[in-house]
Structure formats: C-alpha cells, structure tokens
Amino acid sequence: MRSPSRTILVALVALALWPQPSLVAAQAEGREAQATAERVAAEGMAIGSPSGAGGDPQTSVAQPVFSAGRAAEVTTSFQPLLGPLGDPGGYRAFLERHGITFGLISVAETYRNVRGGLRRGSTGLTLLDLDVDVDLGTLAGWKGATVHATVYQIQGSGTSRSRVGNLMTISEIEALPASRLSELWLEQSLFDDRLFLRVGQLSADTEYMVSQTSILFTNGTFGWPAIFAANMTDGGPAYPLSAPTVRLKYVPTRELSFQASLIDGTPGGGKPRSGIDPQRRNPNGTRFPLSDPPLAIAEVSYAYNAHPGDTGLPGTVTFGGWHRFGRVDAFTPDPVSGLGRRVSGDSGIYGVIDQTIYQEPNDPNDGASVFLRASASPGDRNLVDFYFDGGIAYRGLFPGRSDDTLGFGVGVTHISPVARRLDAMAALQSPTPVPRRSAEIVLEATYQAVLAPGIALQPTLQYVVHAGGGIANPRDPDGTRVRNALVFGLRAITRY
Asked: Which residue stretches belong to region Disordered (predicted)?
C-alpha cells in the first residue's frame, strides 16, 4: 500500500509538470509572435516601400493586396502554387533574365440588383488584363529606359448601364465588350532617377487622384471619380479609354513628387458631340487621336512619416487640377438668342488625403487607414460641380488573415445648380412630372479575402441613393424617380 507522504509527493510532482493554462497561452502567443516576425521579415516593411498605388511611396497600411484598378501595384502570383508547371520550359524566367516581365490578371464578377434601380436582375463581367514591361537597360543596354504595354479582353454587361442607371459605376471594370489596347508607352529616367519622361498611349487614372486606401473598393468612383467621368470629354482618359500623352514626373526627394501630363482631350477620337459612345468611336484603342484640343493635368504629392524611425503615423496629401482647352458646351443658353452656346475651356481642382490611423503593435504591415478625396468644377458648363468620397479600411483585422482587407466607403456626386434649374424648367413645360436632380450617393462595404498567393475573393454590398442624381425612371410612365438600389456582388481575382 502506497504511503500518504509518497502519494502527496507524486501529486505535487504531477501538478508541477502539468501545463498551466497561462503557460500554454504564453507559449502560443510566443509562437504566433515568432511566426508574425518571420512573415514580416519575409515581406519587408510595406510603409515607405515604392509599391504604393499611383507610383508614390506606400503610406496606407490598409492598401489591399489586390485591386482591379489600374493604379494598383499588384505583384502577387499563383505561379509558385503550380510548381514546375508554373513556368513550363523556363520561358518566364528566361524573359526575366533579359529584362522582360509580364503579368496576367483575371477578374470575374457578378452583381445582382435585388431592389430599386431601373430593374432587378443579375449581370456578369470578365476582364483579362495582360501587362508587359521591358527594361531596355537589361535587354539592349539603353540605361533608364522602359517600355510598357497593357491589353484588355472585356466581356459581359454592366450593372450600371442595364440595371441601376447611376453615375458612380457599380464596377470599376464595367465597359463594352472588346479586345482593347489600353497603354503603350516609353519612359526615360534622367538625373539619377529624379526626372521621368513618359510618352505614348496612357490612362490618367493610373497616376492622378489616386488613393492607396480607396483602391480596395469595387465601385468605379473610388478610382476615377464620377466628377471626372461626367465632366471630361468622353469621360476622360481613363479605363477603358486612354489617349496619346506626354507625362513628366519630378521627384526631388523621396517624399515629394510633381507630375504633369498633356493629353489629347478626346480619347474616343472623332466627333464627341455626335452622340456615339466613345468606346464605339474607338473600339479597340488603336485610333490614337492627336488633333483635338488638349487636356492638361498636374498634381503634387507629399508623403510624410514614411521612413523607418519617423515618429507619427504615415500619410500622403495630394493637390491637383485639370484644364481642357478649346470650346465646350455651356448649360446656360445665350442671353440674346436663347440658343445653346459654347464657352472657352473647362477645368477642375481636387485634393486627396490618405492617412494611416493605426498599426498593429506586432505587425506594422497590418492596421487601419482612412481616405478623403474632394473635387470641384464650374457649374455653368458641367453636370457635376462638387464631389467627395471617403472611407476606412483595415488590413489584417482577423487573426490568421493578415492579407485580408475590410472596408467601408461613401461617395457623393452633387448635380450643379444650373443643371437643376434646367430640370425645373423642363418640369414646367412637361405634361408629366419631371424630377429635379440633386445628388447621387453610394455606400459600399466590401471584404477582400486572399485565399492563396495570386488568388482572392471579394464580396461587396452597395447601396445607391438617387441614381443619376434623382433621374426619372424611363420604364415608369408617371415619371417617378428611379428607386434607391441595393446591389450585391462577388468578385474573383487571380494573377499569374
């Protein structure tokens, strides 16, 4: 029979050896912290890196891994998942050794308008985006020279055109089906990479009025804002259109940059007053218009607290403006003849703030950022006189999902007073009710889940208030406003 003292001794030893809950938790936290440190070391510091959307240093900790927006710098690829099949024959590696790199992005999405809008129903869109970059220094010994080309294959129908009727396009990839050349340019860097001259066919939405945080959202207005799309001829040189451009960028310091572009002002070419959709006037992006009155865009950006050791949270502030030369249509008629009149030029100003508001203590690549953008244009010659959007995004909010990003955004497009007065005049002359437009508002909530390198899913929910600013529903004989729309969407993105 075991003695009591021996029994007590065995119990004490077992109790000492039994893992305590606090010790187990501490060990788990230690392993998690070590894994996080190893992952951050492998990734490198995101803040201050040159991978910020729009070509500036990254200051938004919540910049997503993926975006269909052209301003995004998407580098992840599913090639490693395929093993030897990821580069059959070693052709991709061979091209890279000779300065030629390429990426193929596939975006497939579906949206369903469940209530309101023009009519309920579903739509689907697919986009294949092939990007090719050639370092002429490596390939041919031409130091500082780079060639870039982007080609699209677009299929499907858009929700805004066929289901909602709004100004702020439900999807940033909505366009008419086409095989299209988007960009083709040559860039030369000068003076120790402080001055960059780019010439060719360019899209302005890759570099101007870009927010590193807002590129998470699927609504098109969070990329190329609705005020630009509504006021610039042919919607401006932005997806899916582009135009011949000369762009100069000066980077005197790592934090500060100036850039300006002179662009053919009619991306669709031909006659913009003909009423023909500019995507049909330039169906494949190979028209290259050169004789139209030019569009000038310029902006200055400053990135702060982006260096290691800087105190304070990082952010970027941007100011810019644009001017369209030549004659444009005015909303107000000639005071003498009462006929439509044309005025000299059009313009706009804008500002952007991207601000990181929180970084995870153990993972500086995760945290929350906010953004705010605003723009204004003259109301006597433009449908939209004021615009702003803003929102918040958090990358790595949930444990074990460091690459996922959650975001909430809102955009407001204000109809100009002159356009509203014209609505009031039309209502007086019409036998049926004609609504007076005011503003369109869109709210979006989205979550981007990165499933593996180069693969992501992104559900989205959008609510559109006063589509088109409050237009009459063409399907309603009583002329009532288009009802507020609720739209669900799901996007799948892959990159090779």
From this structure: 261-290
pLDDT tens, residue by residue, 2-46: 555 555 444 544 444 455 555 554 555 555 556 555 656 666 888
Provide the token pair at 80.
């490693």
186 by DSSP, 3-state: which? strand
- Rounded to 10 degrees, the C-alpha dihedral 151/207/175/108 comes to 70
| Cα 494 from Cα 496, distance rounded (Å) | 7
- How many domains does the structure of the chain reveal? 1
User: Is 476 domain-assigned?
Assistant: yes
Our measurement of the distance from residue 15's CA atom to the centroid of its chain's CA atoms, rounded to an integer in Å, reads 58
Q: Give yes or no for a contact between 301 and 260, defined as CB atoms under 8 angstroms apart.
A: no
- The closest of 451, 375, 364 to 413, measured between CA atoms, is 375
Predicted confidence at residue 29, as pLDDT, reads: 57
The alpha carbon of residue 44 and the mean position of all alpha carbons in its chain are separated, in whole angstroms, by: 24
Q: Are 58 and 49 in contact (CB under 8 A)?
A: yes
Q: What global pTM score does this model have?
A: 0.89
| Pair of tokens at residue 257 | 């940059």
Has residue 35 been placed in a domain?
Answer: no
194 φ, ψ (degrees, to nearest 5): -105, -25
What confidence tens digit (pLDDT) does each residue in 273-331 have? 888 999 999 999 999 999 999 999 999 999 999 988 788 999 999 999 999 999 998 88
Query: Longest C-alpha distance within the chain, in Å?
Result: 120
Q: Which domain holds residue 146?
A: 46-495
Residue 238: closest CA among 260, 216, 207, 212: 207
The number of residues making up the chain comes to 496
| 240 prior amide bond cis, ω within 30 | yes
Q: What is the DSSP string of 343-384?
A: EEEEEEEEEEEEEEEEE-SS-TT-EEEEEEEEEE--TTS-SE
Could you tell me if 436 and 428 are in contact, meaning their C-beta atoms sit under 8 angstroms apart?
A: no
Rounded to the nearest 5 degrees, what angle is found at the Cα of 430, between the Cα atoms of 429 and 432?
A: 155
CA distance 64 to 60: 9
Contact call for residues 93 and 127 (beta carbons, < 8 A): no
Give the pLDDT confidence score for residue 151 in this predicted structure. Answer: 97
- Residue 199 pairs in a beta bridge with 186, 246
Q: Read off φ and ψ for residue 8, nearest 5 degrees.
A: -65, -40
* Residue 8 located in a structural domain: no
CA-CA-CA-CA torsion sign (211, 214, 215, 221): negative
**C-beta of residue 109 within 8 angstroms of C-beta of residue 125:** yes
Is 1 part of any domain? no
Instruction: Find the CATH number of the domain harbouring 263.
Output: 2.40.160.180
In this structure, what DSSP letter does residue 332 have? S
